[in-house]
């Protein structure tokens, strides 16, 4: 199993992107539609083709950042949304990212990283979030592949992993998942814990 920058880029170049919905996730669209603070600094890690970033940007959220290992994925966003600021489209490793954000969106990134990195993911999200910052998005609640992405997971695992860093405001079955994801996703809304 190759999760390198080249391997991810190869998937985008060869249209091996079965996880890509080709549109914004309905659950995230609904969440975004109730946000009123357009100045929020938002990060979408492992954003891929980033329909979520496109949707937010076109709604007037100009402080949206995408980080992805795949140059091709980032180029795809640039082609679709030419006025998206280049400085906010980052080709790189999420775990090397610096900065601070009000909101981080989880959309098929957690399931793409090797499960051995999940504790590190929680630490990095916590590090990147501003005080009172939020992690919002979707996590799979089914066993999937063990040898390649998408790697599955379950609520019990997440209930052990995330409370060290976050207050779990919501972790419920997603009622408006897309297509074959129905009944297989959890909608999450976590807030960064105050320092002790």
The averaged pLDDT comes out at 89
Characterize the main sheet.
7 strands, mixed
Number of strands: 7
Task: State the helix count.
Answer: 6
CATH architecture: 3-Layer(aba) Sandwich
Looking at CATH, the homologous superfamily is Vaccinia Virus protein VP39
Approximate helicity band: 25-40%
CATH topology: Rossmann fold
Give the C-alpha Rg. 16 Å
Beta-strand proportion? 15-25%
CATH C-level name? Alpha Beta
The structure class reads alpha/beta
Q: What ranges have pLDDT less than 50 throughout 5 or more consecutive residues? A: 16-20
Describe this entry's structure for a reader.
- The chain starts with a helix and ends with a strand.
- The protein has a single domain (5-192), classed as 3-Layer(aba) Sandwich (Rossmann fold).
- It is of the alpha/beta class and 196 residues long.
- The protein has six helices and seven strands, in the order ααβαβαββαβαββ.
- Strands 3-2-1-4-5-7-6 form a seven-stranded mixed beta sheet.
Keywords:
7-stranded mixed sheet; alpha/beta; 24% strand; 6 helices; 196 residues; Rossmann fold
List the helices and strands and how they pair.
Blueprint: H1 5-13, H2 26-33, E1 42-45, H3 51-58, E2 64-68, H4 71-80, E3 89-91, E4 101-107, H5 118-128, E5 129-140, H6 155-161, E6 166-173, E7 185-192
Parallel strand pairs: 1-2, 1-4, 2-3, 4-5
Antiparallel strand pairs: 5-7, 6-7
Quick description:
This protein has 196 residues and is of the alpha/beta class.
